[in-house]
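Apologies for my clumsy wording, but can you show me some protein sequence, whichever is easiest, together with the matching C-alpha cells, please?
=====
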Amino acid sequence: MARPHTTYIPLPCEAGRQWTERTAVLSLVPIHIVSHETQLPKAFLHPSAKTRMVIGFDCEGVGLCRTGTLCLMQLAFPDAIYLVDVLQGGKTLMDACKPALESAYITKVIHDCKRDGEALYFQFGIKLHNVVDTQIAYYLIEGQHGRKRSPVDCISFVGLLADSRYCGISYVEKKEVHSLLREDPKFWTYRPMSELMVRAAADDVRFLLYIYHKMMAKLSDRSLWQLAVRGALYCRCFCINDNEYADWPTIPSIPDNINMEGSHLEEEVLSVLNIPPGKMGFIIGKKGSSILSIKESCNADVIIGGREGPQDKVFIIGPLKQVKKAEAILRGKLMGNAFDW
C-alpha cells in the first residue's frame, strides 16, 4: 500500500481583514489524489451562500492554453490539498467541479489566472469566476505605497514567495520542475504521479491561503474593488467568443461606499483589438521595443497572446480612458506602418 502524501499548510493566527503580522501556524494536512467526484468535499461540489469558502487554486498541463492539455487541478483547503487528476477523471470529473469553479460563493486564490482560465474555458466550457489573483493584488498593494509598476515587471510566484512581506521562503524545487519541463514538456502527463510531481503540485497552492490573508489585510477598499474587477477581466482575457462575453458573470460595479476624496474612480474594461495578418511584428517591435513603449505610454495592461495565442489579437485591461489611449496608440502604429508598405 502506497504511503499517504502529506504536507504543511501555513495559516494565519487570525484570519480576516483585521489579521496582523504574526507567525504562521503550520498545519499538517493530507494530499488527496482525486479521480472521482466522490473524493472531493460536498461543500465544494455544491457551493452555497451558507458554506462560503476560500481555496488556493492552480492548474498544470502541457502547453496550458486553449489547445494544450490540462492534466491536473490543485485545490488547497485549510485542512487538505486535493490534486484533481483531469487525465484520469476526464470530462465527468470536470463537469462535477464546474459549479464550484464558476461560483461566487467560492473564492479561488491563484497566481496569474489568464492561461488557467483559457484552458478551463476551451477544454471544458468552464468560466472561471470569483478569483483573487495574487499577481494583480501584489501590484495594487505596491501602487497604494506609490511604487509604480515597470512595464517589464511581472512578479512570478517564486518571486512572491521570496518576498518577506508575504512568505519569505525560497522555492528551490520550482526551478527543478521548470528544468524538467524544459527537458520533457509531458512531465505532468505521467501516471502514477511521482513523489516529485505530487510535492511540486502541492507546493504551488499550499502557501496561497496564507498569502491571501496577508494581502487582504493590506488592500484598501478601492484596491479590493479593482482586484475583483481585474480578476474577472483577466479570467476572460483569452476566452474570446462571438457574443461579447454575454454568457459570463457580470463585472463588479463601482461600490457606492468608496469615497475617493475628489478623485474619480473610473470603470475598468477589457478591450480586444484585432491585428491584421502579418502586422503583429509592428506592434511588438524589435526585441519588444514597440510594445514596451506602448505600455510606458498608458496606465493599462497591454497583453499579447505570444506563442500560445491567440496570435492576431491584443488585449488591453485597465481604466476606460487609459484603455482608449492604448487603443489609439496601437491603431496609430498600424496606420503608420501601413504607409511604409
Remarks:
- The longest helix spans residues 320-340.
